[in-house]
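Table S2 (text version). Query chain:
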Amino acid sequence: MALKYFRTLTPTVRATYHSKTFGQSVKASLLTVNFYSTAPGGEDTGTVAGQTVVTERRGSVVTVAIHRPEVRNAVNQETARRLLEELEAFDSDPDLNVAILHGKGGNFCAGYDLKELANHPASLKLEQDVTKGPGPMGPSCFELSKPLIAAVSGFAVAGGLELALLADLRVVEESAVMGVFCRRFGVPLIDGGTVRLPRLIGLSRALDLILTGRPIGAQEALAYGLANRVVPDGQALQAALQLAEQISSFPQQCLRADRSSAMYSCYDAPSFTQAMQYEIEHGIPVIQSEAVTGATRFTSGAGKGGKFF
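Corresponding structure-token output:
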């Protein structure tokens, strides 16, 4: 089936590609924490030996971890393929609301594996039409219909920074380092870095990072809006899980309609009027499906005084 990565006018999931290696989602009990994988063989036993991407399901939240700590979680072709598979599986699973992307072993991701590129350049075959194929880092062209949180520790640089930019929110540890480190070696940003970074932090600040390749720490990233939360070292994943559980607890149709509208207005809307039209067309159906019920709960006393429940 053909790949389809960019938004259409439909309000549902934008990406419709389904890899041959998945298509049967493995259902984990909401009462337990299970490892699972979409690769052939079904549910995992919990071991991570030999796996470049490890996923763990926690109720309606799934964590997706890059597991190549020996190379600071640099992504090779196998890892890129697995990342795309797992995020596509998350997006198509009706029982999952939020995903968390993180790295095992103290680093988020050090970018694409330059040793693989140097030693096997012919093996890297890239599709130039972004509507027909994934990016070098895997899911960079894939636009999720549900929230993704990046839990950033250690290095999130080069293509690793681009993966962090794919997320809706970034929870960053105090000692984390972000930056366009690939500037030093002539490796271009072709996983959305030049597209998403200026949208998130503004063109001037984005060009500062893109042109110099300099490192940026957690506090500066927070001031820029690149980080959404800064937490003590070792706590990014736990903080991201708490944030994901909060987001997952809200009425999901409303949340996804508002998210979709914000994304459309930022990236796709040709005019203010069309952005407003998109917002109302996707918001009105939610009034009957969720807002009336919510209003009834409010009149019964829930959430009054600004309380979250």
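Notes on Table S2: The longest strand covers residues 53-58. The radius of gyration is 19 Å.
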